[in-house]
Design brief:
alpha+beta; Rossmann fold; protoporphyrinogen ix oxidase, domain 3; 2 domains; globular; disordered C terminus; binds flavin-adenine dinucleotide
Length: about 400
């Protein structure tokens, strides 16, 4: 098993616990958890080393599966954006528009306002098309144009519409960032969740090890690979572009640093956002730690860049991956997809089910595994671990 993030940990857990296989889990980092890893900093504040990770899903399969390994802390994520000298709710809602334009609209008025400013775009191909067709040019300029440039290093007019599709506008006062059915944080953090997942006599863990170092030294039957697919194939079709982030952590001698868990800076500063971890973790501590995010082209591969030419290059790697016998490619980097944690868990569970039924060549479909009854459902009493939050459609952290 190459990689100890969600993809590798779920596959390891299922293969050891359900299929009775012996698993060697290898990661070149010095910790488990992949990008979801959390730890306690020198001041004693729990932080997410690779940026804020908020768990949210509409999949009861995924939620109940993870509930086997953690209790939850109900958590509703809220984000403010610093625009025109004010802090306003994001996603754009009724309050955002009323604050920015000094109006007093109700929901019907907001719908009328958006209808008035939205510009028809046909076809809707890019992020710019999508946002302008929904909220018009001025809100696009205030919230999306510069933010997208900072975050992705390219114009919204060159970025696939799927990125902005995650950031809707609302005609009500709902200020939650996500509206998924289940929204919660692991009560004792992600790393503890991973420790419990991997706590099985059939699972051995080897950190600080690139899998190539042991290839040919330790015999194995099959590989589950969750690293970058272009790296696996020696970049033979050229590198797949990724966006990375430099994180700058600061600890302050204060109980609270800012007004919300995340404050976005679409137009000012080189950083995109500041996150204060204590909102996420619920930790009570006299100090607080925040992280500033500076997007960059170099560094660890974090975000696959959704552009048609990149998707075309990935298809070449996918064909290679499909031909590779005895290697299963799972996870965000191995399938070059902008997946959230729940989608990676769903993808890994679906892959495991498919491997258990070798005659069944159905592609692991995240969509399919996100609905319908699950084979790996945890006991019904998992439901009592959290106050379940009912919602409608989901948004995300693009
Ligand atoms: C800044 C940021 C914020 C995010 N916020 C959220 C959020 O709020 N909510 C959400 O649901 N999702 C969020 N995500 C997405 C989330 O991080 C991913 O969905 C999830 O971590 C992917 O898991 P994975 O196992 O596919 O990959 P990873 O977590 O990247 O794990 C892959 C592992 O493989 C290891 N590896 C790679 N190559 C090798 C090799 N050759 N040998 C050995 N080991 C190797 C790596 O070291 C790594 O630990 C965020 C991502 C980022 C970058």
């Amino acid at each position: 098993m190459v990689g100890a993030g969600f993809a590798g940990a779920v596959m390891a857990e299922r293969m050891a616990r359900v299929a009775g296989m012996r698993v060697l889990l290898v990661d070149r980092r010095n910790h488990i958890g992949g990008n979801a890893h959390d730890t306690v900093d020198d001041a004693g504040v729990r932080i997410h080393r690779y940026g804020p990770h908020i768990f949210h899903t509409n999949s009861s399969d995924v939620f109940y599966y993870l509930s086997t390994f953690t209790a939850w802390r109900p958590y509703q994520h809220r984000v403010l954006a610093s625009v025109d000298g004010q802090l306003v709710p994001l996603p754009i809602n009724l309050d955002t528009v009323n604050l920015l334009y000094g109006m007093n609209l109700d929901a019907a008025g907001m719908v009328g306002f958006l209808d008035g400013v939205a510009e028809a775009r046909e076809p809707v191909r890019t992020s710019e098309d999508l946002v302008i067709s929904r909220v018009g040019r001025d809100l696009y300029d205030k919230f999306f144009r510069n933010y997208t440039r900072k975050q992705w290093g390219i114009d919204a007019s060159d970025l696939d519409s799927s990125v902005a599709a995650r950031v809707p506008a609302r005609a009500n006062r709902d200020s939650r960032y996500f509206t998924d059915r289940y929204q919660a944080m692991p009560l004792h953090g992600y790393t503890r969740l991973f420790e419990r997942m991997l706590d099985h006599p059939n699972i051995k863990i080897m950190l600080n090890t690139d899998w190539r170092e042991i290839d040919g030294v330790i015999p194995y039957g099959e590989i589950v690979y969750t690293g970058a697919v272009d790296e696996f194939f020696g970049f033979r079709h050229g590198p797949l572009p990724y966006r990375s982030i430099d994180f700058r952590f600061e600890t302050h001698d204060l109980e609270r640093y800012q007004e919300a868990a995340v404050v976005n800076y679409p137009n000012d500063n080189d950083y995109t956002r500041i996150t204060e971890f204590k909102y996420l973790t619920g930790q009570v501590h006299p100090k607080t730690t925040v992280v500033y995010e500076y997007p960059t082209a170099n560094g660890d591969p974090y975000y696959p860049i959704p552009q048609p030419q990149n998707a075309a290059r990935y298809r070449l790697y996918r064909e290679d991956a499909e031909r590779e016998r005895g290697v299963h490619f799972v996870g965000r980097l191995a399938t070059y997809r902008y997946y959230n944690m729940d989608q990676v868990v769903a993808q890994a569970l679906a892959t495991f089910r498919r491997l258990q039924r070798p005659g069944d060549d159905v592609e692991p479909s995240v969509a399919a595994s996100m609905t319908g009854p699950g084979e790996d459902r945890a006991p019904a009493d998992a439901r009592s671990l959290i106050g379940i939050v009912m919602g409608t459609a989901g948004g995300d952290q693009a």
